[in-house]
Write a structure and sequence with these properties.
heterodimer; A: 293 residues; mainly alpha; MetI-like fold; two-stranded antiparallel ribbon; 11 helices; 2 strands; B: 345 residues; alpha+beta; Rossmann fold; OB fold (Dihydrolipoamide Acetyltransferase, E2P); six-stranded mixed β-sheet; five-stranded antiparallel β-sheet; 8 helices; 24% helix; binds adenosine-5'-triphosphate; binds magnesium ion
């Protein structure tokens, strides 16, 4: 096979320059800057900085607020990931039963789900609205005086609820297509081999969904850790008060509201290491492959 | 082991298409029945109704002495081999073969013994720990067979199990499957559109066309006494010669040639197998040969009999040339069909 090539050695480099420049300016440079800042104590008004070594880090790990936020992040991430994966899987399996083969219906349903995510986040918040949110009214029937942004538990509940709500459609679509890609005849063979529907699910369907499931697990963890910033910001509105926050949001609050750039940089370095670990973990497992054929 | 009986079994798909018109027949205990017909004639639909993978729109299906219309596939005591084998990609060969047994709460040591036995029978012992993706097509085919036989079902169902294999392997597996079925004595329904498979494997052949059963009979009956012009032209390669003829005064004539006898005066279709026409310098038929197909063991002569296309099968030792030759028809080798309906007279 003939490979297309460039006549000049510098030409491909030239084409890569814009991309590399963007990555450098918006990723490596700020990252390096953050690493550097994490070793300094910044003057809040920008009049200089003092080298303080690891003091920002030790202060961070000693801070009760930081540890509280770290624990919340762990619980938040686990709950959002587990809930949005399992609910989406359940919905996909149910929907797959109904619409297997019915192509138009399937496509329509997919479209609705594909359009929904950005809208869903906003709608989710409206549901909890303090003055006219239907969910607030609904739980009030059971004597739950729901106080968004005031009560710690209630706020955490709303954050998790909306985050799950927003992620469901994406997971649903992936699980759906994962289910649809399982050959019909394999399911039929299972139908002959095993009379129990739940047995067939756990023995055949679920393992064959593992590649999809694993991919979603990683993306959902990443989502819960980082992409929920917008939702949390909409709820907390920059006023931390007694509210729960994830570590990512705390970086922003401490750095830009509290003007503690050094401390906030130290926090973001920790998060960078977390992302790095997650990425390595993902590549390792993808290499060990959970896919067949 | 079981007898299978269909009573006016019919399939209408949700879109209103009638894939199988009401069909009634019985398959005897231990019999090997082949369902054959062109693509889209409803063979798979019929088989899948027997398997329980497709609902039966009306009629009654019995396996053994049970009506099984509403019985789940897993409870019909059947095993099925699919065209693409349908192996579980995440399970090893041993797990694939044993999966059905595991679900029947059979103790693990018995499963292991049965899997081992089936693997030995199918020459799969060295592959038991592999995943299906690490096997060749022929080996996958064997695993699919293994999965079917370990269950000791009362009925085997096959849907074109050999069509993904190359010609050589297909011939070999054909013989192996047939021998295995003989040995186990399990009633079997085998779907194919390959008429060589149908002829060689079947105790009885069911020929389908457009959702209708055209004929049920032994391979020899179907071949030598086709029930319709469709069967005559579908079975056999090359197919039966179908010539326009006319019966008058007790004689059946094709062009100027006297071929057979028939009581009524009517037009009809005359069917003669290519090998039932033999070159004979004193024969009554004059055939103009235009093309000779060399097949090694024998040759096919294509030509015309008074403007009607005709094919003759001759042995390799017989000298042939293009141009006019004389031939005779073997006695009792002529089939007569109604011109309108195509039905055998
Ligand atoms: N789910 C379905 N809905 C509607 N029509 C269907 C469906 N499945 C099959 N058919 C139609 O029913 C007819 C018979 O299909 P079937 O699969 O039984 O054919 P077949 O004889 O097995 O053909 P092949 O040799 O190509 O496998 C075909 O015309 C097909 O288009
Ligand atoms: Mg078919």
């Amino acid at each position: 096979m003939k490979r297309a090539g460039f006549s000049h050695r510098w030409l491909p480099i030239l084409f890569l320059v814009p991309q590399l420049a963007i990555i450098f300016v918006f990723f490596y440079w700020p990252a390096l800057h953050a690493i550097r800042s994490s070793f300094f104590l910044q003057d809040p008004f920008g009049f200089g900085e003092n080298f303080v070594g690891l003091k920002n880090y030790t202060a961070m790990f000693k801070s009760a607020a930081y540890m509280r936020s770290a624990w919340f992040t762990v619980i938040f991430t686990v709950l959002v990931t587990v809930l949005s994966l399992s609910i989406a899987l359940l919905l996909a399996v149910k929907a797959d039963k109904v619409i297997r083969g019915a192509k138009t219906y399937r496509t329509l349903l997919m479209w609705a789900y594909a359009v929904a995510p950005p809208v869903a986040g906003v709608i989710g918040l409206v549901l909890f609205d303090q003055s006219w949110g239907p969910i607030k009214d609904f739980v009030a029937l059971f004597g739950w005086d729901f106080r968004l942004g005031v009560n710690y538990f209630d706020t955490a509940f709303a954050m998790i609820f909306v985050s799950v709500w927003k992620q469901l459609p994406v997971n649903f679509i992936f699980f759906m297509s994962g289910l649809q890609s399982i050959p019909k005849s394999v399911r039929e063979a299972a139908l002959i081999d095993n009379r129990s529907a739940s047995g067939r699910f756990w023995d055949v369907t679920f393992p064959l969904l593992a590649p999809t499931g694993f991919f979603l697990l990683i993306t959902n963890i990443t989502y819960a850790l980082f992409d929920t910033f917008g939702i949390i910001d909409t709820i907390v509105k920059g006023k931390p008060g007694n509210n729960p926050m994830t570590l990512v949001y705390k970086v922003y609050v401490d750095g830009f509201r509290g003007n503690d750039l050094g401390g906030s940089s130290a926090q973001s370095v920790v998060l960078m290491i977390l992302v790095l670990a997650l990425t390595v973990f993902q590549f390792r497992l993808v290499e060990r492959r959970i896919h067949y054929t | 082991m079981a007898q299978v009986t269909l009573n006016n079994v019919r399939k209408v798909y949700p879109n209103g298409f009638e894939a199988v018109k009401p069909a009634s027949f019985a398959i005897n205990d231990g019999e090997f029945v082949v369902l054959v017909g062109p693509s889209g004639c409803g063979k798979s639909t019929m088989l899948r109704m027997i398997a329980g993978l497709e609902d039966i729109s009306s009629g009654e299906l019995n396996i053994g002495d049970r009506v099984v219309n509403d019985v789940d596939p897993a409870d019909r005591d059947i095993a099925m081999v699919f065209q693409n084998y349908a192996l579980y990609p995440h399970m090893t060969v041993a797990k694939n073969i044993g999966y059905g047994l595991k679900n029947r709460k059979i103790p693990a040591d018995q499963i292991a013994a049965k899997v081992q036995e089936a693997a030995t029978m199918l020459n799969l012992t060295e592959y038991l720990d592999r995943k299906p993706s690490q096997l060749s097509g022929g080996q996958r085919q064997r695993v699919a067979m293994g999965r079917a036989i370990v269950r000791d079902p009362s009925l085997f169902l096959f849907d074109e199990p050999l069509s993904n294999l190359d010609a050589k392997l297909r011939n070999q597996m054909r013989i192996e499957i047939k021998a295995l079925q003989r040995r186990l004595g399990v009633t079997s329904v085998y779907v194919t559109h390959d008429q060589v498979e149908a002829m060689t494997m079947a105790d009885r052949i069911i020929v389908m066309n457009g959702g209708v059963i055209e004929q049920i009979g032994t391979p020899s009956e179907v071949y030598h006494s086709p029930a319709s012009t469709f069967v005559a032209s579908f079975m056999g390669a090359p197919p039966m010669n179908l010539l326009n003829g006319h019966a008058a005064g007790g004689r059946v004539r094709v062009g100027d040639h006297d071929l057979h006898h028939h009581d009524q005066d009517r037009p009809l279709t005359v069917g003669i197998r290519p090998e039932d026409i033999v070159p004979d310098t004193t024969g009554p038929l004059q055939i103009n040969v235009s093309l000779i197909e060399e097949l090694g063991a024998h040759r096919l002569l294509h030509g015309t009999l008074q403007d009607q296309a005709i094919t003759i099968h001759v042995g390799k030792d017989h000298p042939v040339t293009t141009g006019p030759i004389y031939a005779a028809v073997k006695p009792n080798a002529v089939s007569l069909f109604d011109v309108e309906s195509g039905m055998r007279l």
